[in-house]
Write a structure and sequence with these properties.
The chain contains 20 helices and ten strands. The chain is α/β, with parallel strands linked by helices. The protein folds into two domains: 322 residues, Up-down Bundle (ABC transporter transmembrane region fold); 131 residues, P-loop containing nucleotide triphosphate hydrolases (Rossmann fold, 3-Layer(aba) Sandwich).
Length: 585
């Protein structure tokens, strides 16, 4: 970004204006009604003047009735147009923020995995909801109130000059000091507002962690600790909010004091002019009404300024996220290459996670998996087994070395094409909080119901799904909480079967299951891996013993290769020790 674009206020305002460009026809309608309502508000003091000076002075009942009737019509027009102004501006703001939230979510979901390693889910949700809600107010009601108050302030000052030049000159003298106060307090409010939103986002992150992990919280009886952790974050946010409220209150008190003193002076000086016959009572009354209109408008502009400073703080947080570069599917514009066979080759791969760059997970690792071959990778926890799966999905890139699929570098593949041809069944499959049918169809969104049921049968899921009263329409709850571990695994396997990938990754797919569930899942996995290259990451002997080849991983390096029968004979080998630990811990 250049220096011009780094101007925080100008840059943000132009971005918001650009975001709302599709709603300009709606905003134009709102603007028309805004000017009509504001003009009506400017007209009515003139009729009050007529009532006092002409009708009442001459005791003309018909003139009084006429002036009152016209004033009522003016008020009626003002009320209707003000309502329409509110409707169109609010509608435009809602539509703009809807589009902003959609773009922001798309930006978040398109980030590379490293981004999520360093970001808290609750904080991201805070930007998606709380920060955009503040912008929503700025883009809808506040914008219309800003234009209306500005128009009324300018129009009111013009009419004040028309009514009495002497009094108006005094009013203009006190405006610059008020403007300086607004600017000074505005800077303070903006800084505090941004800090408040940051603190609120952190409290949302703590709440999200506690709620999403509620079973762990209750299992360890740590409700009190979670309450205290959340309350501490809320207290920090509250302290900043309190500081902001105090700053706004001081600002309001100071401006109000100046305004009320000005009104007292106007009434006093205007009374002198009436006594000296330089001004009529009706003119003074209409002048005071104009002063009240201008005062309210300027005062409202002051309060709007504080709101807009809060919006600028929230806006910077939102657009900071919007500007982050992505390597998401929509940004992957490489030529579309499809995995046709599923041959895998990893050469001299070294890797450490960006969050822990000093810890080497893989160390010059090399392996090959032939077409439709089933390879099992075993090893101690933290040895790098699951990391290999994440690298094949290209969630991360290697520090050094290369990965080839079908003799092509993994970096040559479009990310969508690559991930669409790799299926994964993990130890704890994440299901979306929709129906079982939706979860199975997640592997192939446009699949027919017949394809869904066929996949469920191959995954040994059809019988238990059919036993539910709602069948495939049964809702699974958040993260599949309504299903047992074995049922969730079989739904995940059905999802992978329906996807029909060329490469299958089974990451500890049966480690959390009981014997009966494991037996059914193993049968389902046999159906799934018959016609594709399969990589099994597991500890259990029952899972790996039927693999064509077993790779034993230790400290990021392959230390043994062979079948189960071959490896078990090496009594001093690492594989033998793993098996012994499993059966004789």
């Amino acid at each position: 970004m250049n220096e011009k674009e780094n101007d925080p206020k100008k840059s943000l305002f132009m971005r918001l204006l650009y975001l709302s460009r599709q709603e300009w026809p709606i905003l134009l309608k709102g603007m028309i009604f805004l000017f009509i309502s504001s003009a009506a508000l400017m007209v009515y003091p003139q009729y009050i003047k007529v009532i006092i000076d002409d009708a009442m002075k001459s005791k003309d009942i018909s003139g009084l009735n006429k002036a009152a009737f016209i004033a009522m019509i003016v008020f009626f027009i003002q009320a209707i147009t003000s309502s329409l102004r509110f409707y169109y501006f609010t509608l435009a703001g809602e539509k703009t923020v809807k589009r902003l939230r959609s773009k922001l979510f798309s930006q978040i979901i398109s980030q590379e995995m490293t981004f999520f390693d360093f970001s808290k889910t609750g904080e991201l949700l805070g930007r998606l909801s709380a920060d955009t809600a503040i912008l929503q107010n700025a883009l809808s009601v506040n914008i219309s109130m800003l234009v209306r108050s500005g128009f009324q302030a300018i129009g009111g000052i013009a009419l004040l000059f028309y009514t009495s030049t002497k009094l108006t000159i005094f009013i203009l003298i006190i405006i610059p000091p008020i403007a300086i106060l607004v600017a000074t307090f505005g800077k303070k409010i903006k800084a505090i507002s941004k800090s408040t939103q940051d603190a609120l986002a952190l409290s949302s992150a703590v709440a999200e962690e506690g709620i999403s992990g509620v079973r762990t919280v209750k299992a360890f009886a740590q409700e009190d600790w979670e309450r205290k952790r959340y309350d501490d974050q809320l207290q920090g946010s509250f302290n900043l909010s309190k500081k902001r409220i105090k700053t706004v209150a001081n600002f309001t008190a100071l401006v109000s004091s100046i305004g009320f003193m000005a009104i007292v002076f106007i009434v006093w000086y205007g009374g002198r002019l009436v006594i000296q016959n330089e001004m009529s009572i009706g003119t003074l009354t209409s002048y005071i009404l104009y002063v009240m209109t201008v005062a309210f408008s300027v005062g409202f502009l002051g309060s709007l300024y504080t709101d807009f400073m809060s919006a600028f703080g929230a806006g910077h947080r939102v657009f900071e996220l919007m500007e982050k570069s992505t390597v998401g599917l929509e940004n992957s514009n490489k030529p579309l290459k499809v995995i046709t066979e599923g041959l895998i080759e990893i050469r001299n791969a070294s890797f450490s996670y960006p969050a822990r760059p000093d810890v080497l997970i893989l160390n010059c690792l090399s392996l090959e998996i032939a077409l439709k071959e089933t390879i099992a990778i075993v090893g101690s926890s933290g040895g790098g087994k699951s990391t290999i799966a994440q690298l094949l999905m290209r969630f991360y890139d290697l520090n050094s070395g290369e990965i080839f699929i079908d003799h092509k570098s993994i970096e040559e593949y479009d990310l969508y094409a690559l991930r669409n041809q790799i299926g994964i069944v993990s130890q704890e499959p994440i299901l979306i909080s929709e129906s079982i049918e939706d979860n199975i169809r997640y592997g192939k969104p446009h699949a027919s119901f017949e394809e869904v049921t066929a996949a469920a049968k191959l995954a040994y899921a059809y019988d238990f799904v059919s036993a539910f009263p709602e069948g495939f329409k049964t809702l699974v709850g958040e993260k599949g909480v309504q299903l047992s571990g074995g049922q969730k695994q079989r739904v995940a396997i059905a999802r992978a079967i329906l996807k029909d990938p060329k490469i299958l990754i089974l990451d500890e797919a049966t480690s959390a299951l009981d014997s009966e569930s494991e037996s059914l899942v193993q049968k389902a996995l046999e159906n799934l891996r018959k016609t594709r290259t399969t990589l099994i990451i597991a500890h259990r002997l029952s899972t790996v013993k039927n693999a064509d080849k077993i790779l034993v991983l230790d400290n990021g390096m392959i230390v043994q290769v062979g079948s189960h029968e071959e490896l078990i004979l090496d009594k001093s080998g690492f594989y033998k020790k793993l098996i012994e630990k499993q059966f004789n811990p």
